[in-house]
# Entry
Amino acid sequence: MIQYLPKSLDISGLSFEIYTDFRDILVIMEAFEDPSLTYQDKVYVTISNLYREPLPNNIDTFDAYKKALWFLNGGNESDNDVDASRLMSWSQDFSLLAPAIDKVAGEEVREKSYLHWWTFLGYYQEIGDCVFSNYIAIRYKLQKGIPLNKQEKEILRNNRSDVLLRTQLSENEQAQEDEFFYGG
# Structure
């Protein structure tokens, strides 16, 4: 049982301080959503944005990344057997997510000078009925082919661009779209 909020991670018997504020971690989470980044790029972004100091060359990068994922997952091991169908986007949904987290926290969390990622995750996990959770429920039903009720259909019809997850384009795809629509 973990009864503390970690501020460092142990790798190869050495302790390394990490950034733990939720804003720092959201940079990493957004990188995971970026289709233009390779797996290696995402590992680099994770390690360079989580650890406060550059890791020594003799440190196992895979172990550092694995420990980083453990931290990002709130102290839980990553489960590769879980259905990874995405229902939310940290970047697209943050404007809906922030008020829901504020409601749980009882304060405006973006105004706090510091909020540990795990505390932020705890607030996230306690989100109840709100716009964000309604959108997630609709996305889930659409993914699973479950019919929407009348109210959900109306929400989708009136808020389609917010309810549906946008597909992020790679840099090449974005350039092609810009060329097509704007001539360059």
Remarks:
- The chain has nine helices and two strands.
